[in-house]
């Protein structure tokens, strides 16, 4: 009988890409957790399969509603759980700090506590649980250098602080209760379906809007001095899958944590210039918009991949330039098909 794989937040960019990967590379039965009012843009190509229950189904639940989480885990009893659901936008978290902290910390605690309770009731139930943290936990770095899993945390936004909480929870439930948890701290990952609230995606979206004459040829940007690694989301979900299988095979100790980062590093000004090089419009300029600046910026994100490389056979395969071109073409196709995004 095929194993069951639950993905929280599966309508997001990463969740939907993980579903695509698992449908192609496994025989798992996939269950996507979502709130009933979430947009379906990222999974529109999967709706026919969902309707036919062809290895893919939806379970409506909310991280902040404990009974719905208990009902979901108790009914499904998934063998694997990839916990991706979150309020995941750092800049937005300054505007909605309480919701960010509630969803990302208490929501993660709800999920892990439910799994612990059900396992205590039925000791044979022992799923692998992937807790998605973030490289943002390192925050505003004081000492430059490649950051490893033992580097100091420095919260630089409500989002960053919320992911520090989720990170500690993932480790705590593994170490204290021997749940088969592991935590990932993914660096900046982008590509098709990336939300427009993230830097490289809002730049790509604005270029596409300009090309279709929906925006004046001026891109509004925030801080361009940040330095970070980039990798394609399709490489990211490959890493997640391989870590989950490694954990299932006992190769990862409960509560372990992994940095995952691309090998190519850029400052954000270079990212803008690469995206502009893909456009035939040569009149496009860019300027700083004060509303896009963070009160504190995580302005240095360079990570050490030694640990993950010694645990699984994985490295990024899609170049950053290809990733950015695919992202720009994603927005071009959205606009071409009449899905005009907000100019924000």
From TrEMBL:
Membrane spanning stretches: none
Gene3D superfamilies listed in its UniProt record: NAD(P)-binding Rossmann-like Domain, UDP-galactose 4-epimerase, domain 1
Ranges for domain NAD(P)-binding: 6-324
Top-level taxon in the UniProt lineage: Bacteria
Pfam families xref list: GDP_Man_Dehyd
Matches recorded under SUPFAM superfamilies: NAD(P)-binding Rossmann-fold domains
Protein name: GDP-D-mannose dehydratase
Organism (species): Prochlorococcus marinus (strain MIT 9215)
């Amino acid at each position: 009988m095929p194993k069951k794989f639950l993905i929280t937040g599966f309508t997001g960019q990463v969740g939907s890409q993980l579903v695509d990967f698992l449908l192609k590379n496994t025989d798992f039965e996939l269950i996507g957790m979502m709130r009933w009012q979430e947009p379906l843009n990222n999974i529109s190509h999967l709706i026919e399969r969902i309707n036919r229950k062809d290895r893919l189904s939806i379970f409506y639940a909310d991280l902040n509603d404990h009974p719905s989480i208990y009902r979901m885990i108790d009914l499904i009893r998934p063998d694997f759980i990839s916990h991706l659901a979150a309020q995941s936008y750092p800049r937005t978290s300054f505007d909605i700090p309480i919701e960010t902290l509630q969803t990302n910390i208490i929501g993660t605690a709800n999920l892990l506590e439910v799994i612990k309770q059900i396992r205590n009731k039925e000791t044979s139930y022992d799923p692998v649980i992937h807790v998605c943290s973030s490289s943002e936990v390192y925050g505003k770095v004081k000492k430059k250098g490649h950051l490893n899993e033992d580097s100091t945390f420095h919260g630089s936004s409500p989002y960053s602080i919320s992911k520090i909480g989720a990170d500690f929870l993932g480790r705590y439930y593994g170490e204290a209760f021997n749940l088969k948890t592991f935590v990932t701290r993914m660096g900046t990952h982008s590509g098709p379906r990336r939300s427009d609230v993230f830097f490289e995606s809002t730049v790509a979206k604005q270029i596409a809007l300009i090309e279709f004459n929906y925006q004046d040829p001026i891109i509004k940007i925030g801080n361009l001095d940040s330095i970070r690694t980039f990798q394609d989301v399709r490489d990211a979900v490959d890493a997640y899958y391989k870590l989950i299988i490694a954990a299932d095979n006992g190769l990862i100790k409960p509560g372990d944590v992994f940095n995952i980062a691309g090998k190519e590093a850029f400052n954000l000004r270079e990212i803008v210039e690469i995206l502009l090089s893909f456009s035939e419009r040569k009149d496009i300029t860019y300027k700083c918009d004060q509303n896009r600046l963070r009160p504190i910026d995580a302005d240095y994100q360079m990570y050490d991949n030694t640990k993950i490389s010694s645990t699984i056979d994985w490295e990024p395969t899609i170049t950053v330039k290809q990733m950015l071109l695919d992202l720009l073409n994603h927005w071009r196709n959205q606009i071409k098909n009449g899905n005009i995004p907000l100019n924000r």
